[in-house]
Amino acid sequence: MSGWHTHTGLAVALDRENVDTDQLIPARFMSTPRSAGYGEFLLYDLRNDVYGNPISDFPLNAVPNASILISRRNFGSGSSREAAVYALVDYGIRVVIAPSFGDIFASNSVNNGLLPARVSEAEVDAAIANLADGAKEVTVDLTDKTIRLGNTTIEFTLDDVWQQKLINGWDDIDLTQNHKQAIAAFRAQHAQAMPWAVQVQQTNFRSAGRDTVSQKHRP
Amino acid sequence: MTGRRLLDKLWESHEILRREDGTSLLWVDRHLVHEGSHHAFAKIAERGVPVAEPGLTFGVADHYAPTRGAPATDAIARMIAMLAANTDKHGITCFGLDDPRQGIVHVIGPEQGLTLPGLLINCGDSHTSTHGAFGALAFGIGATEVAHVLATQTVWQKKPKAMRIDVTGRLGPGVGAKDLALAWIAKLGADGARGHAIEYTGPAVRSLSMEGRMTLCNLSIEGGARFGMIAPDETTFAYVKDRPFAPGGDDWDRAVDLWSALPSDADAAFDTEVTIDASEIAPIVTWGTTPEDALPVTATIPDPARMQGSAAERARNALDYMGLTPGRKLTEIVVDQVFIGSCTNARIEDLRAAAVVLVGRRAKVPGIVSPGSQQVKAQAEAEGLDRIFIEAGLEWVGSGCSMCVAMNGDQVEPGKRCASTTNRNFRGRQGRDARTHLMSPAMVAAAAVTGHLTDVRELLKEREVA
After folding, report:
1. What digits encode the pLDDT tens for the residues A99-149?
2. Pair A165, A180 in one domain
3. Which of B1, B168, B215, B361 has the greatest number of CB atoms lying within 10 Å of its CB?
4. Residue A217 falls within a domain, yes or no?
5. A173 with B49: CB under 8 angstroms?
């Protein structure tokens, strides 16, 4: 994953609350290998009619080269499917601006170089109003956490850790390799404190059908 | 100094190190993988790194598992085969389709004793919060994080804020953990607990069985919380004891001692406190397209004309998608089919609750009952519950995520309305243009009997009179 500092691109409004991950990518597309690309699956059932024809006035269809999405609260809520982020990234989206994001979606985004930029409800209202007559060019600066839309500049909220990760394009597995000794030491100490946690053993080989706990109740 | 919370105790006992920026590197005790983990296996293959702890990693086929016969398509069969190949390659125990331990990952973890109090449990699935019911630190992760856990058996995480949801009083007859969960989500919103780990406390929570506690913790994510947890107690220990992978002998006594020290200290403070009176909760159903769109079944369909701003707009969209008329009674909503299953509500107690309503009655609409695991299925059959469902006219099928996530071919057809024990009423969740109403297993059974949304308490009352 490569890092980035600023991004300028066309912004489009997706004027909805709770754009969940099932909408971002319907489950039926998720058996596709990533190498095949996920861009065409993005918001598939909102972008296309039941026959698979694009709905022309859907925002992303009207502005297919948009790279910034402005939406409403609780964007990316729902499942942990990283495929929702793959769909956005493979489509070409670099930044999503919203008042709040699903926790797992936000961390998945940062792991894929996609910025989840949090702004206030009022700022989203203003930005969506500003885009009412069509997509506009927006510049997002990760370094000073600002979004420039026309002659207005707003600040966005982003965890400092995530800011650094996006700027530097850090890969967690590489980072963690530097802590191999600490991990090994922890494992040894943990195995002392809770042997059952580290040495998983099947202690009981009963087969199926046991439930001694819930009260035996037959309707 | 104020006392330590369950969250603090779990966090501290898994923290390998904390960076200056506040992010912790945590040790993962149990890593559960499923067919959807293929992206993560591909990532580690690309880097050429092995699985760090195959002995702490367990696989299960659930998301794409067929519930009737063979996999519906080649693509689905490939997903199941890929999980088998990946786990086999890395020496990971996998509960495949023909293993009697197979079932939904959040049902089989506890059932096998892989889920224990005091452990940190990760799975590439947002309903991993389910395992928090045992007093474990359990949370869902994305594919990049799954790859990280596979490669290192650790996960980077910033400690969430702590919320306590204290449930006073007691739940009435016909009202259960599902209703309690939907009640708090309706009250706080689908993002009301974002950024938080929830600890559920209070007498109404204590009196829940482990099955009920799992349902409650399972739905934490639907209110925005990645973590849900309940302090372990005698109910927890009784459930865990003698499970196949639970500690035995001297280890058991040692473990119980350790687990008994996990509950939050009496003087522990929380960032956010919420109190709910269980005695005020009625059976709840959802009417819209997020779990926060939930109301007591005795209410009417909300009217966007009486709402303000974006809430009105959202309600209008939701009602349009759901094909509902504002102001009508919720009990007038006619359903086309029912589904009993999922990691939320497919454990033995859930099936019993539905069977109590269905015994001696016929369903007016078709539906399927998918037990949460092959063991739950065997248990239910030993109790004769399968006969009750079949005699009521419902299909008794195999175990998997099935119609909750609609990946295995089990789905609700466009425009059809389903009363469902699942966790998400999102647009298209159960199939394109499917209309989902979430409710408890007893409430789904009631809807099956009458063909419309129904207050199950009325059907239970008839039972008492008879």
Report:
1. 999 999 999 999 999 999 999 999 999 999 999 988 999 999 999 999 999
2. no
3. B215
4. no
5. yes
Q: Which one of B114, B124, B147 has the shortest CB-CB distance to A80? A: B124
Cβ A79–B126 below 8 Å, yes or no? yes
- Calculate the CA B90 to chain-centre distance: 28
Q: B41 with B79: CB under 8 angstroms?
A: no
Tens digits of residue pLDDT in B20-74: 889 999 999 999 999 999 999 999 999 999 999 999 999 999 999 999 999 999 9
Please give the residue range of the domain that contains residue A78. Answer: 6-170
CB–CB contact A179 B21 (8 Å): no
Same domain? For A129 and A188 the reply is: no
pLDDT, one tens digit per residue, over B70-104 is 999 999 999 999 999 999 999 999 999 999 999 99
B348-358 helix and B441-450 helix, angle to the nearest 10 degrees? 30
| Cα angle value B221/B152/B137 (rounded, 5°) | 30
Q: Clarify whether residues A73 and A59 are in a common domain.
A: yes
Report which of residues A209 and B331 the model is more confident about: B331
Q: Are B121 and B136 in contact (CB under 8 A)?
A: yes
Question: Least CA distance to A212: which residue of chain B?
Answer: B239
Q: Give the domains, in start order, of chain B with CATH numbers.
A: 6-273 (3.30.499.10), 283-465 (3.30.499.10)
A11 domain-assigned: yes
Q: Which residue in B454, B228, B429 sits closest to B342, CA to CA?
A: B429
Looking at the structure, do residues A129 and A109 belong to the same domain, yes or no?
A: yes
Across chain A, how many H-helices and E-strands are there? 10, 7
Q: How many CB pairs under 8 A join A and B?
A: 231
| Residue numbers in B near A100 (CB within 8 A) | 191, 194
Residue A105 belongs to domain with CATH number: 3.20.19.10
* B352 contacts A203? CB cut-off 8 A: no
- A76 with A66, same domain: the answer is yes
Q: Which of A24, A34, A45, A82 to mutate to test the interface with B (most CBs of B within 10 A)?
A: A82
Is B348 in Cβ contact with A211 (below 8 Å)?
yes
